[in-house]
User: Which sequence fits this backbone?
């Protein structure tokens, strides 16, 4: 072949062979062997990025922590807010965590994973169909976080079919009434607060506080307009302690 002068001319690509022709014109210079079990390893690949609307809520936080870059088109106020909230987050082994007030690190999750956590913590293996606030605290103890956690939990519990069907029923088993034993008169008292009444009395009273002595069933009562702790303490002092004394075993139930 050395006696001939060869000239290579690229022809127009045939439909369906564009990638093949491009690879033929751009051979790999590396001498690494190709794995026969996975021949396409480390060879050209196509990377796609999801739209901004589908990115996790913490994308801007990770980008700023890793590269100190702001979101495209961010205003000065948005940049300042991002710098402030960064102090609450930390990346450990490529995983983003939020620092809780008690020092616990909560793993940040995206929308898809948060839905699974909601289901498992409320009605799944880890759930018990508790209310919104109890389920929110449970998720925090499990170590997860996303910005709309409390709102999402309340809405999820509100839409739970089983909660709507059975939450109004009494689930405690019926038990026989047990009398409260008391050794002597005026040793044990029980306090009850009744109200709020509507309409109120002519003197503006909306509540009634009662104290029942368990041995003799003697009752002391007083109407109230409000029920702050100081008023309750004054009632106990004037109506019970000053009139009947304090025994060695005196306590209120």
Assistant:
């Amino acid at each position: 072949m050395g006696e001939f002068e060869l000239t290579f001319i690229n022809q127009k690509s045939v439909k369906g062979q564009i990638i093949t022709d491009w690879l033929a014109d751009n051979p790999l210079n590396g001498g690494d062997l190709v794995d026969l079990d996975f021949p396409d390893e480390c060879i050209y690949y196509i990377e796609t990025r999801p739209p901004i609307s589908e990115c996790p809520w913490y994308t801007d936080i990770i980008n700023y922590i890793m590269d100190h870059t702001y979101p495209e088109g961010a205003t000065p106020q948005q940049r300042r807010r991002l710098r402030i909230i960064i102090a609450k987050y930390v990346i450990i082994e490529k995983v983003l965590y939020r620092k809780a007030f008690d020092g616990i690190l909560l793993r940040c999750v995206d929308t898809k994973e948060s839905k699974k956590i909601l289901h498992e913590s409320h009605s799944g293996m880890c759930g018990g169909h508790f209310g919104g606030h109890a389920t929110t605290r449970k998720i925090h103890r499990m170590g997860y976080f996303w910005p709309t956690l409390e709102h999402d939990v309340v809405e999820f519990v509100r839409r739970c079919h089983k909660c709507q069907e059975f939450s109004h029923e009494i689930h405690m088993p019926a038990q026989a009434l047990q009398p409260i034993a008391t050794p002597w008169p005026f040793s044990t008292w029980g306090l009850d607060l009744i109200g709020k009444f509507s309409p109120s009395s002519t003197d503006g009273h909306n509540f009634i506080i009662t104290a029942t002595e368990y041995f003799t069933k003697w009752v002391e009562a007083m109407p109230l307009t409000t029920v702050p702790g100081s008023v309750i303490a004054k009632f106990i002092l004037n109506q019970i302690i000053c009139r009947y004394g304090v025994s060695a075993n005196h306590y209120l139930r």
Summary: Residues 119 and 127 are 8 Å apart (CA to CA).
